[in-house]
Amino acid sequence: MNALDLVRLPELMKRGQGRPGITIALIDGPVARDLPELAAANIREIPGKLKGTCSRADTIACTHGTFVAGMLAARRGSAAPAICPGCTLLVRPIFAETANGNREMPSATPGELAEAIVDSVSAGAKVINLSAALVQPSIQGESDLQQALDYAAQRGSIVVAAAGNQGSVGSSVITRHSWVIPVAACDLQGRPLGESNLGSSIGRRGLMAPGEDVTSLGSDGKARSFGGTSAAAPFVTGAIALLWSEFPASPASSLKLAVTQAGRLPRSTVVPPLLDAWAAYQSMARAAKSMCA
Fold first, then answer.
1. pLDDT tens, residue by residue, 19-37
2. Smallest Cα–Cα separation from 94: which of 81, 110, 83?
3. CB contact set of 101 (below 8 Å; sequence gap of 6+)
4. The domain spanning residue 265 has which CATH number?
5. Which pTM was predicted?
6. Which of 72, 216, 247, 264 is the most exposed place for a label (fewest CB within 10 A)?
7. How far does CA 74 lie from the centroid of its chain?
């Protein structure tokens, strides 16, 4: 079984490629926008301290941002999942293209991430995809991040966040927030990866998605495989964007509930359930039908 089939995305993808009015903020690294697979993508840059287009294709920041962008916005039929290429991608980098970026995973301070979330919400993002290891923690930084996530909730911007790859059981200021959908990673049999973080808040409000040998775009134009929760989160982000494209008048709370709870009983495990994009669509369709009855 491939990654898209595991989370029942093909049925939803057959209904369309997404609407330009559904905007996804990519809080990540810059994107190699000159790739042929992204030529038709509607990509805009949210102004910030860092440029949204790669200047050095060999850095992990560019590689990471391009990989996730490909999962969401690449041309259908390319090596990437290309979940919702018809949606608009708002690029808001927080990872710099540094000389030592080839050896270190992307990271940001809580304050930098908070600023990026506020910028993304203010730019009109309906869904925010983020995955970042947080460094230089501080009480003020975590307070800023909490306020930024509150702002996203107030404005109805759904936040999808990678749960992290430390193999720990616990939570963070991000995964604890009630508005965030934390995403753990699993293999192609739906089993949690050993490196994926888990926890009570992740289990209650989060989802699992494939994070093993996921293939997308490399910044050099070649297909690249990658793993972990950073690769898992875009499956959830893309599913939400496609659902919102099908039901554009639906409030964010309805979309979030359908994706995380459709057909499921309340849960108390530290392991979240697998994303089921088609069950979420069916839940939304039933709700829409009952509204019209």
1. 999 999 999 999 999 999 9
2. 110
3. 59, 60, 61, 95
4. 3.40.50.200
5. 0.95
6. 264
7. 15
